[in-house]
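Dear Dr. H.,

I hope your travels went smoothly. While you were away I took the liberty of generating a structure for the chain from your last submission, since the lab meeting agenda had it listed for discussion. I wanted you to have the full record in hand beforehand rather than looking at slides cold. The sequence, exactly as received, is reproduced here:
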Amino acid sequence: MNLRILLAGAAVLPLSMLVGQPAGAAAADPMTDAFTKAASTYEVPRDLLVSVAYSETHLDGHQGQPSADGGYGVMHLVTAKTLDKAATLTKKSASALKSDDATNIAGGAAVLRALADELKLDATARKDAGKWYQAVAKYGGASSPAVARLYADTVYEQLAKGVNAKTPAGETVTAPARAVTPDRGPYAKADDLDKPSTLAASTDYPGAAWAPAHSTNYAVSNRPTSDAIDRIVIHVAQGTYAGTIDWFQTGPRPNPTSAHYVVRSSDGAITQTVREKDRAFHAGNYNRRSVGIEHEGWVDNATWFTDTMYRASAALTRNIADRYGIPKDRTHIVGHSEVPEADHTDPGQYWDWTKYMQYVTGGGGGGTNPHTPESVCGTGYKVIDSSALGTAGTVYLLYNADNGNNCVATIKKTSLGTATATTAFLEVEDKARVTDTGNFEYYAGPVRAAAADKCVKWGGKAGASTYESPFEHCGS
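The corresponding predicted structure, in token form, is as follows:
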């Protein structure tokens, strides 16, 4: 990684550092104060500490809930690793380190200081953020030098750019850009995963780095000869880029996991960890038929889903789809949560499918509707009938054999991205009609109703065209 060296501006001290607070008063900027206090207590460069936290979690402690690899709080203290070490060093309970931001930040600073002590950094060296590189690399807990370097380089690039971010509570935490020369030490000789693989046989996607998953985390195969590849599954890692790659490289373990690719939030960098011919363990009963793409971030924090990430991932998806003849639609490009029998929620409510599919299809403004009747109605629904609404769209009738429900969706073909009058309706015999009507950008619906052993009347409108069926499809 070529770290961008920026001129450091003069730091402005927060008011809380200049003026004392009345006894018992709550801190106006609690996380800012926590970083300042922890940095002072453990003699860790304050802006480096902030950069570690931002690189790990975007300053979101996720209300004490763990990441995919068991990390807690804004400093991502990992069970059986940094969390236990922080508890010993700070004499604070694991529960407090998991749930209290200030305690968690202090715990992270304590671990970093202990790692610096192991490296024998004296008081003078500790004032130079560049000298902390090896400590930061070890803090990430990577299982290989290459991933440790990737982790530390990410932190130091963030330090070079500076931080200006809001916490979930609305507080703004800042760290000015710092001109720092990182002292990589032995990590200078580690593979740089930010450089594309120079081995042509290593990666299936040009420009991807290569960091192979542990052999127990995937199954050697011979796809598409052994199994046709007709799906692409989108995941969100519940963790960082480096942490996800490291997780795939760790094994054996009770629940082997991998994906074919991992995409970084900040710059769209891509690492391949499993060859496409092999079966990654990422999507249950879709493993044989799909390519899996993990994205750095958390489902409950939209800040990870950058436009750069969307564009890089969409280019990857488009390349995979073209090579295997996979239709570029939402029936064949799905989220993990849409895989049958999946118990995951990713990519979650903040993933912008409309933007993503526009980038996949190259539509920009949207010449292709990114939604399908199946994606609108949901898992288990299959199209059993349809009617064209002129050139403006198509209305679809779907049925779910698992629960006996019908669903109707009207999918637009024109004026995509522009709110126009669109309608979908469903009427079960002897029951009131249910209608979804309004000005919609891409579709009307879903309109669902229990219709086992009942006849249904269905239809919709788009543009100037309307369709209404007779009572039909009785019992299906």
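Two observations you may find useful: The CA atoms of residues 115 and 135 lie 5 Å apart. DSSP finds 13 helices and 20 strands in the chain.

With kind regards,
E. W.
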